[in-house]
Amino acid sequence: xxxxxxxxxxxxxxxxxxxxxxxxxxxxxxxxxxxxxxxxxxxxxxxxxxxxxxxxxxxxxxxxxxxxxxxxxxxxxxxxxxxxxxxxxxxxxxxxxxxxxxxxxxxxxxxxxxxxxxxxxxxxxxxxxxxxxxxxxxxxxxxxxxxxxxxxxxxxxxxxxxxxxxxxxxxxxxxxxxxxxxxxxxxxxxxx
Length: 192
Ligand SMILES: Cc1cc2nc3c(=O)[nH]c(=O)nc-3n(C[C@H](O)[C@H](O)[C@H](O)COP(=O)(O)O)c2cc1C
Prior knowledge:
- By secondary structure, the chain is mainly beta.
- The protein has a single domain, classed as Roll (Pnp Oxidase, Chain A).
- Helices cover 11% and strands 36% of the residues.
- It has three helices and twelve strands, in the order βββββαβαββββαββ.
- A seven-stranded antiparallel sheet has the order 3-2-6-9-10-5-4. Strands 1-11-12 form a three-stranded antiparallel sheet, with no helix packed on it.
- The radius of gyration is 17 Å and the shape is globular.
- The relative contact order is 0.20.
- The structure holds flavin mononucleotide.
- Flavin mononucleotide is lined by residues 16, 30, 32-36, 50-52, 55-57, 81, 84-89, 132, 165.
């Protein structure tokens, strides 16, 4: 038997990412922790992020129409939560965490050096949805640390050690691999 619960955007689990933006007036970058995020189109490669309408970061994304998605690892959890509990309106989050800004290739906001994957994005559309605005960002550059590449050049999720969130109260890491994609039909990749 199943019971009904308050509707939530729970995809069980949601990823936890760090989005970097640039503040022109303060002349510094900011970091926001987000769990409302997903890849939603292969070609062009598009990511959707849901930022609260009152968040400081929301105005920063709107200003430059650019952001970087940085994928943190489990051992960064303390700084990840810090960036999700304090606002960059008052505090320079780079100066108050172990995160280091490094220049991006194609957008103004910096990447976080310590994160093993960084996705530079340009906003192609924003859609107000209620409490949050959906920003659709085209991935214009994807950086992957060599340390998490397998011998075929694929990204090894286990090495990336990403953080998951159950959307209500706790952080998790991923477990082990279940099977290779297409194992039941001898297919090798979801995309070409
Ligand atoms: C695990 C976690 C997930 C979060 N997910 C979101 C989210 O998806 N959207 C959002 O607007 N805020 C989210 N937040 C809250 C923001 O990170 C938080 O309000 C932050 O302080 C805003 O930073 P800013 O004021 O510098 O923009 C999350 C916080 C945590 C800890």
